[in-house]
Amino acid sequence: MTEDERRAYEEQDGREGVERRDFLKILGGSFAAMASGCDLHAPREKIVPYARQIEGQTPGLARWYASTCAGCAAACGVLVKSRDGRPIKMEGNPDHPLSRGGLCARGQATVLDLYDSERLKNPLSAGAAASWASLDAGVEKALAEAKRQGRKVRVLSQTVPSPALDAAVAEFCARHGAERVIYDEPSFAAILEAHRLTRGRAVLPRYRFENARAIASFDADFLGAWLSPVEFTKSWSARRKPDGKMSWHAQFESRMSVTGANADLRAAVKPSDMLATVVELSRLVAERLGRAAPAHVAGKTPVAHEVLRRTAEALAAAHGEALVVSGSSDSAVQRAVNGLNETLGAYGRTVDVAHPSYQRRGETGALDRLIAEMERGEVGALIVFEANPCYDHSRAEAFTAALAKVGALVSLTQRRDETATHAAFVATTPHALETWGDARPAAGVHSLVQPLIEPLYDSRSIIESLLAWSGQAVTAHDYVRGQWLKTVYPRHKGGGSFDAFWDQALERGVVSIDAPAEAHGALRAEALSGLKSARAAAAAGEFELDAYASVAMFDGRQANNPWLQELPDPVTKVTWGNVALFSPADAKRLGVEDGRMVRLSAGTRAIDLPACVQPGQADGVVAAALGYGRPSAGPIAANLPTRKLLPIEVDPPGGADIFPLASGSALSVAVLEQTSALARTQLMDSLTEPFTGRERPIIQEASLEEYRKLAPAEGVPENEAGMWPKHDYKGHKWGMAINLTSCTGCAGCVVACTAENNVPVVGKAEVRKSREMHWIRLDRYYGGDEPETNPTVAFQPMLCQHCDDAPCETVCPVAATTHSTEGLNMQVYNRCVGTRYCANNCPYKVRRFNWFDYAHDDLTQNMVLNPDVTVRTRGVMEKCSFCVQRINSAKFQAAEDGRAVVDGDVTPACAQSCPADAIVFGDMNDPKSRVARTARENHSFRVLEELGVGPSVFYGIKVRNAQVRKS
Amino acid sequence: MSQRTSRSSFGVPARAVAAFVLLLAAVSAHAEASSGSLHDSAMLFIHRCAQCHTVGGGRGVGPDLAGVTSRRDKDWLVGFIQNPDPYLDKDAQAKKLLAEYGDLRMENVHVTKAQAEGLIAFIQSASQTPSPELRSPDEGWHGFSVPGLLIFAVLAAGTLIVSVFGARRDAAVLAVFCAASAYWAFGGWRYFRLPGDQQGHIPPQPIAFSHELHAGRLTISCLYCHGGAQRSDSAGVPPLSVCMNCHVAVRSVSGAKEPSPEIAKIVAAYDASVSSPTARGFAWNRVHHLPDYVHFSHRAHIANNLQCQECHGPVQTMTRMRQAAPLTMGWCINCHRLTPKDAPSHWKRVGGPLDCASCHF
After folding, report:
1. Does residue A630 share a domain with residue A743?
2. pLDDT tens profile A145-179
3. B270 contacts in chain A (CB < 8 Å)
4. Hey, what domains does chain B have and what are their CATH numbers?
5. What is the pTM of this model?
6. What is the DSSP letter of A759?
7. CB distance from B187 to chain A under 8 Å?
8. Separation of alpha carbons B160 and B175, rounded Å
9. Is residue A844 situated within a structural domain?
10. Which of A53, A82, A454, A821 to probe by mutation at the B interface, max B CB count within 10 Å?
């Protein structure tokens, strides 16, 4: 390290001025002080109790409240943990009929958004702080002015599946003659449009993966970030049981998505070839089922006939239990998919249009029509909420330009985002944990949003603002309650008073009611004729763009969330920014390697991104994640050098905004001179040894046929190679079983662990040095016969294995890492002196070292810290503790109740929120416990068994359904 | 170079010195033990005297005792402390004070002669460092050890001689012993404690709340106010509304006609919280402090039927709350290690977990 670098580190670390000599002086002085009996006292602290006892509130005791996640429009059910009045952790609500206890990475990270110090602290009028009275007066005046001029009033938002909010918007629209515009980006309009054309109603069906025995997906990343990933992961993984019914899944996609990584059969297809592929598959299916073949379309699919034949066979064999989904924004593709689903008898079984989903409602062209109106100067007032139209869609630039002709822009937002910077009035809105609301993600599923904390800043809920501008002074609570009295309560079975119903709904968080089936017509065959792909094939030498919503960043609304910025993409493993993904063949042709900057240009727009080679990607496609490169999201999104969070950061802004290119036109790619090293958390992609070609058994795989031929599993692997005397675990022996067949690699566990265990964020520069701190990581390995063009992918959650004879324990010179009587490998932070011997001796690379005092300067953000877990300081080693705080808490609870700890009392954070239910934790000494049974019966293996360290984590063999079952 | 290699000659003086020091230390320690501890006297003062008296903290119910040892004869003081009634009836000085303090007679605090002498020693010591608040008995310097001084003098002279005439290395060894003896001689050992161990910590509090009155004389259950101890990891300090459960009616200390100014503070703060929803209770000074890397669970210990006093000391006798136990890890582990033979019979489970991760996570 150069002297300059060292100084930069120390300055950013807030430790400038302490030289080595000074340190020694202080050290000597403190010994002297200790010896002479000087008062080396503990910190003098104050205890400030409440003035009044809050009912049910006990200091130090966590309380859980049911609410609804507001991370995206999927509206999963959540349980929020509140400690001493602060919400600190989001977990899935097991009672919610859609998410069923799971929660994705973004949903769990929303709790950190609450404590974002970049949130707006007060409403703004013309960019300056304003009172609510003056803001309301200003908005009323603007609305009156629009009316006087005869100009239109428009209310613009992305989909918010909240009936109460819809009602409030309707009241506002009625009062001001306004019209509501809903858009979604990434758009689902094509699905709605296709259903309007084929069935006469623009509905978004509810996909029932739990009923599907064979699945074909065309560019729908339903296990990653598409529509309702938690719901789909729950349903999908429920049918991936090799011992029971195992579904078969084919994926046709242009890039390697999380869903594609989990598919049994996968083919890389460019977006422009998607229609021809669906139609060809439809033809093969129709042939097998003896139906009329669909109309021919222009173009020929590049997918091998064998692949389509196998898919067609599997789908046809599963007639009535087959499901085809597509994430395409091309209505023609979606219409062809509807036709295929009809042929397969999917409607009513796996595709439910009678009880549809309301998670996306934005229709085709809605935003384009609004921009046209704005450009013509017809819009007098524009109200925007739950959207960021100056950034989050492909025509953001046109929208921003057209704002000049809009009378007044009113933005309801939590932060000074790209849209708010252009707004005449900014009405600050509270975080979902600060306000009342409701959600109806699907027909018959109503959930409540309830506040857990007083608004941190001067804000007013969207419902209250819209009602205030409609001349009604009513609180969000009263309004939501009133709406439920009118709409939900009458259709609720079970009777009882409304008060009792309301209390019960609040307690459970969700209510299921019988929703009448929505009528829809039969398939209109004429809608399936004359299909024409909306995406033209790119000219030779040009590329098609796949601008995708990533697992971590989605559309960029949480761009200032450090947990999500540092969350490695499950497939690319890149953090802190997006990259331009190329297929290996294209990369070779262009001469780019990982980290080489490339310029993507379409017309006059150009974007520079570092390149990254992605095995399995379609040739002729460049893929890049949306949501990065936001200019106004905050210092974290911009990856700025900030002492608040990161120890040192001298890198250009992380990622670039890909929205301007996302309109579908062809791109040209220029390779630049510069490079920008990727901040990547995994550098080895293959388990094949380079010289011997031997496959390392880190992940054990089997096809379903092979798996069924295996002898019934008997017992768990025994440690045969150990060199130490065996431990005698008299009481509990904690262990974990991870089912690799179920695990989809969604990375929900990573954020769950970060939130539970106060895992620090280290920043881009540190990730580049492999100093990321995640206690659990998702290793992703490529394999198979075509590792470059079409690899098989396996995910493996890797955490401290809590070895019986842990190599880390024997090398610690200060006994800071020791073995517990219950099989835990313990890390004692206050004893650790930071030699890092343990990390060097750990075969799993799961120990993390605190190179700095990370991220504890931001007092607002520190409010999210879990008080049950020590915040580690600089120079200390840390690692997964099996959530020992939860183990201890369960023991204390059992002691209080006067009983023994039973199976299911302890659930670590990673297992709780896993949408795939892949992780089981418990007592291995109890033969009846779930974990012991799972480890015994699942053909489990332990990673690096041959070392004889005796890990306590048992991985269930990964089974792929490679066969096509005929029945 | 010759000095560095003269290993055989080095061991002899060092061993001789060590033996000498150990011998004197043993003698001295014995003497210290038999003379009674100032620490015990301080504790006694806090239990029996501090309700009415201060040392340098101004007049309370009774007189400020700062400097009383120079104003009064020692025998007079010992007699008065042991049995005040005859003095208050007959002695002119005592009668004068009685008149001055509103005819409020000092109660018999039932101490032995040795204890009374100890109290006087403590008052004398505390008078030398007067402070507005009664000082913690463990703070301040309580004189030096005579044998220690003797050793120090011998060693210092020896060091000087050896450093001038002998080998520098031997001088260095002697200097270390010299420093150690000085540390001991000037009473350093008495104050030696692990950093963070603040046994005896007795910080001032915003109101003169007495556990002796509430838990001792009125025998209110600990869990009435600190109910969190049963359900939560932290016992909690009661909100004002809990105080007001009784003090809505009780406005004066039993026997007194005038309303208590201390209770008035509670009532005023509570009333203020009516108008302001964000109002907080008093900012109490934390007495028991554990480092952030230790997790202590009250409910786990209460569930095992431990009595509060087993860790917190005789709280029912404490006028002002003080930390009775050292709260060091060694102290914790001593109980966790107890075997059925030694453990109190009322515990449900003998001993506690010894895994690091039971407390450190």
Report:
1. no
2. 999 999 999 999 999 999 999 999 999 999 999 99
3. 51
4. 2-35+145-191 (no CATH), 51-128 (1.10.760.10)
5. 0.84
6. P
7. yes
8. 9
9. yes
10. A53
